[in-house]
Amino acid sequence: MEPTAEQQAAIDAAGRGGDVAIEALAGTGKTSTLTFVAQAMPRRAVYIAFNKAIVTDAKAKFGPHVDCRTAHSLAFRAVGGLYRARLKSPRLSDREKAEILGCRGVRLKVSGAVLDGLDLANYAWRTVLAFVKTADPTLGPDHVPKVPGLTAEDRSRLAEAVLPIASRAWDDLIDTNGKLQFIHDIYLKLWQLSGPRIRGSYIMFDESQDADRVMLDIVCAQEDAQLIFVTKGPRLS
Question: Fewest 10 Å CB contacts: which of 13, 91, 102, 142?
Fold first, then answer.
């Protein structure tokens, strides 16, 4: 099969060695375009996609010089394996989280309502979940959930109360013997914070328009590799 004129333009752009962004309309041969690129550049490469099914399909089409991975499989290989046992931990109730985080007896009055330790444990957990979806290096007030109806002063007081609890939650999560529920996004975030290097002369980052800030930060930090971003445009009618 010969590449189309548009595919050849993408191959030529990648062959010039600089970072490249390829927009492929849905149904127009996105994977075949990347296959052509990989054939023209038979050096060690990494193909990354978020969806496991897409990666499985890609493995059957690329040559052995292309390591096809999901973002989480890269992170698990580097960091996640340390937390393998914790991935089996059950979901906890707010009461159980409050016990672990030592905030059962805490009370906070904001805008006429009283938040107890269970509420604060829930806000702290949501704060950590927001943090791990960002490229930020540390927990901060911006990760605390926005509560409708609070004044600016009360938002500040809520953040001041929640952040120390969220920090204890994060300390628990990065401990291989911690007690809180451990989820896959935690080790992906830990990998990002470690400043990882992906081994490959070029990286093909598929469907990058759907990537979260954590994985974008990891890929964009690969200064020693050529980056080929692939975005999916609208489907042709």
Answer: 91
